[in-house]
Design a protein that fits this description.
This protein is of the alpha+beta class. Helix content is 32%, strand content 20%.
């Protein structure tokens, strides 16, 4: 099955299938151990529209770009654009309903958000199809947007893997959009530490540390996360404290998307 074959190539532990029926949208998260049950899942939801995310997530609680794992894929909801006409042709492509298509391009390295945006726009795909919350219709399932609920079909599934540099030369990436996390409390790190009665060494390191070379920054960052967890600090509040501290090396080394890396640390400790 194409979905499982793509998922097995991705890092991560949580994969999302979405259903759309009379009760609206629902996200369902599977682990690699659940892959053998996916055909039964599809059969159980055969009266609903079925969608999937090609990449994985750090958490199974929600389909959020901030929990998305890196992926060496480009994807597109092509609508009426036939995959034969795209340059380069997709690695795999399927028909979602008569004369409506979706596709994936496998790359040798992870593309940036800017490349996903510029690529989708250049080939005439769905304008929002590049985002990490995008779901694509599961190949071979029925499309209940139409009265006769036509069944989709896989067109091809074993195309080439492409060189990222070549794709970037052809479709220059747009600037990365920096967006605040929607669930960060509107509090400062100082206010959060005061709320939990945190002082002493931990408070000093979070607010004033980072200038010493005696500890590697990523080790200290992890240590601070563990200390906050032991103090009972919530994950969203911990994110604020761990983002604001000078021990946060990601603010310098991963400027394009520092939040994602801090969330990965939070998820590791608050698992």
């Amino acid at each position: 099955m194409l979905v499982i074959r793509i998922w097995k190539l991705q890092p991560g532990s949580y994969f999302c299938l979405s259903t759309k029926g009379k009760k609206g949208w629902r996200d369902h998260f599977l682990t690699p151990e659940d892959f053998e049950d996916i055909e039964q899942f599809i059969a159980d939801h055969k009266a609903e529209d079925l969608y999937w995310c090609p990449h994985s997530f750090l958490r199974q609680s929600r389909r959020s770009e901030y929990y998305a794992r890196p992926s060496k894929l480009l994807w597109a909801d092509l609508d009426a654009v036939h995959p034969d006409t795209t340059d380069p042709p997709p690695t795999c492509a399927w028909e979602t309903s008569p004369k409506r298509y979706a596709a994936l391009w496998r790359l040798d390295r992870e593309p940036t958000e800017g490349l996903r945006r510029s690529f989708n726009q250049a080939i005439g795909a769905d304008g929002n199809g590049w985002c990490l919350t995008k779901v694509l219709r599961v190949p071979g399932t029925r499309n209940y947007k139409y009265p006769n609920a036509p069944r989709g079909r896989v067109l091809w599934a074993h195309g080439p893997t492409y060189d990222l540099d070549a794709i970037e030369r052809k479709y220059p990436p747009e600037p990365t959009l920096i967006r605040p996390h929607p669930h960060i409390p509107s509090q400062s790190a100082r206010a959060i530490l005061k709320k939990y009665g945190i002082g002493g060494w931990l408070r000093d390191q979070l607010l004033h540390g980072g200038q010493f070379a005696t500890e590697r920054r990523h080790r200290m960052h992890f240590k601070l996360a563990c200390e906050l967890h032991e103090k009972g600090v919530g994950r969203e509040e911990a994110f604020v404290c761990l983002s604001d501290t000078a021990w946060n090396k990601h603010a310098v080394e991963n400027k394009d998307d520092p939040d994602k890396w801090v969330w990965a640390l939070v998820d590791k400790v608050w698992k």
